[in-house]
Amino acid sequence: MVSNPGARGSVELARQARLDARSGKLTGPTANLAPGHVQANLAILPRALAADFLHFCQRNPKPCPLLAMSEPGDPALPELGHDIDIRTDIPRYRVWKNGELVAEPTDVRDIWRDDLVSFLIGCSFSFEEAMLDNGLPVRHIEQGCNVPMYRTSIPTHAAGAFSGPLVVSMRPLKAADAIRAIQVTSRFPSVHGAPVHIGDPSLIGIADIGRPDYGDPVEIRAGEMPVFWACGVTPQSVVASVRPEFCITHAPGHMLVTDLVNSRMAVF
Amino acid sequence: MVSNPGARGSVELARQARLDARSGKLTGPTANLAPGHVQANLAILPRALAADFLHFCQRNPKPCPLLAMSEPGDPALPELGHDIDIRTDIPRYRVWKNGELVAEPTDVRDIWRDDLVSFLIGCSFSFEEAMLDNGLPVRHIEQGCNVPMYRTSIPTHAAGAFSGPLVVSMRPLKAADAIRAIQVTSRFPSVHGAPVHIGDPSLIGIADIGRPDYGDPVEIRAGEMPVFWACGVTPQSVVASVRPEFCITHAPGHMLVTDLVNSRMAVF
To answer: Which domains does chain A show, CATH number per domain?
Structure first.
């Protein structure tokens, strides 16, 4: 779960990552693949739930920044890249039935249905790249582990069956770096944007910062404060709580590599 | 020391405020006069010190955002407004000799010299107006007192004889409001811009947040964090420490009301 601040790949690297996932050559996490390119979280839902989930994303743009939504049954996502087939172009999927994880395939063509709608949601890799480009430390990348994530006492805005608590990711920073990180990440509203909280974790219902609900704990050093961003795990946890009869997501860290460029996501 | 988020005056109100100061009709603080217009701090120094002070401002743009510098001996400031006479257009001045306050006149024409250079420096009124416009609370305005200010352990960048600690102003905010305040005030680099510190005061050498070095203490409520901005008192305290043989400043709160508009100071 790391992003690479170094060389920026051409769009060919993004397309190659998808082709490698399609052919079965790539089955692992996508961190560091096609640096500079936007990666996306995936949720695939039956059409009967799609309108409500779209409404949920519209109401909760910080945890659910929707980059693209497909037509029902159509595996293409032309806004995100040339020739995408969402049934094959992610290295590993998770298939859920009635809220239970039933399989982790590398291809979902055999279970595809004409009523399935794909939602592609922005991912923190994009703003972490901007932080690293600004010389800001990203602790979980330094430590080579997953970002720590926490369920909070902040409710999301419900839509239809979808509701539940906001999940946040945390990166510890010195105060001056936290201020700069707010400036840098505010430029990227379509990939979670500015933090939602800084400082005292108990104010957002986090009892023990050393015990994240998802991911790994990271060190918080003297003089640092925890900085919390809305997290793309929120829609996954919200979808899981609805226990839809059928649903497909990406496996954690196994994202869709898109043709979009991170730097082009900046609003100013 | 309050700014008015309400009706925005025309430039005529700014000019009238200066004419009232010039005629002696206005001798009090300028808060709430000509809402929407930029107000400025003043330091007038002999030419022999001007180059170093300009360099100090250039090296320390956050506490010393220089809006305009006059020609030696020239009381006009055409960048800041039509027909300004800096010798008369501020309601009350402070005159310093060898670092000692010797007078607080309402007019300095009788002590004007051909070697005097005026420095006009941005003021927090501008970004406070933007905060209020964004629905953010400004505690000292709510409490009807002066903003609390503190000498810190953060050094300024010295230039010639000018050096000394950064002085900061503090406004307490809830975390989500602090994040928004960072976004809002980042747009105004020419009037102090983004905060320089958030959270633990001891990290910047403030021993007791309840005892400011200048201004008045304000309440910090449960769930709020102190947010610190570089303060225009910094150049005044730095100038005072140099003890120039002659120097004129504005009396606290008695600012130059300029023709510039706060909203036009925003960089994006």
So the answer is: 11-123+243-265 (3.40.1640.10), 125-234 (3.30.2040.10)
